[in-house]
């Protein structure tokens, strides 16, 4: 329940300035101030970003679009970036990254795909309603629309469509005139999220053509069949490529188009798996702040192994995107699970979710 209407919060923003000053200098505890502010309105806080759900709309059989109005602490984000979304249930705080599709009129739009077996998406799809409030993290992500007009090929699998859709809408609206092709890979036709919207964009912008590839049903007229393969690109101009989807999809795109594309931007939303013939080795993991030492292995991510050891490191996306799991490497060397690169510089920040120990390591954890 809220004692103050949400619409008042922006006009009451000046009240927070002196409180922030006092909290910064240690005269007030931010958590105490937040407790009072959140009692007045669940979307109010000194520095944390809370957002109220303003609208929800199904855009595919398994994907829900959410329109969120953040409080005045939100500093903005760009289409194509990711934002952490936190929800609390039964005293447990759960987080997950979602792509910003649009940020306009004081609201931002994301879309949530149902993940079978997931912990966050069932809550967002089934238990989050207009008027509810949730917390947002800082936006992050580096996908950018290419600057020249030789053309853009967008390749999306499943919910990988959402960051590309944000960039696409912004680019077409800003007058991009190069040829743009979007191939969206889904299992079933009902999963073609935003299909009507994409078709409307194609009618409005003749330089844009969307196509769909279906893998678990027979393909219809004009549709492609199966998973991504190079033959799907016959007759499609390949200049700048942006691809987003699970790690396997992104790896296939990299292999097929790496040598051909003028530029390649890839983003995966599942944790990377380092394919290597290297045998699994036993290593020693030292967690300096917890003063504990554990046996580990050279293949699983440090985040996974720290959790298995009973630690609870901060994390968000678990995909190397949001930086929430960044930790200092004190000694030893780690391997980046995405690229295979080794890092062994002491005091170097590493992302636990995409780093595996290459030998014995000590972490500031
Ligand atoms: S949890 Fe997001 S980068 Fe590691």
From TrEMBL:
One of its GO terms (molecular function) is oxidoreductase activity. Residues 46-146 form the FAD-binding FR-type domain. Residues 281-365 form the 2Fe-2S ferredoxin-type domain. InterPro entries: 2Fe-2S_ferredoxin-like_sf, 2Fe-2S_ferredoxin-type, 2Fe2S_fd_BS, Beta-grasp_dom_sf, Cbr1-like_FAD-bd_dom, FAD-bd_FR_type, FNR_nucleotide-bd, MRET. This is Ferredoxin-NADP reductase. It comes from Pseudomonas panipatensis. The lineage of its organism: Bacteria, Pseudomonadati, Pseudomonadota, Gammaproteobacteria, Pseudomonadales.
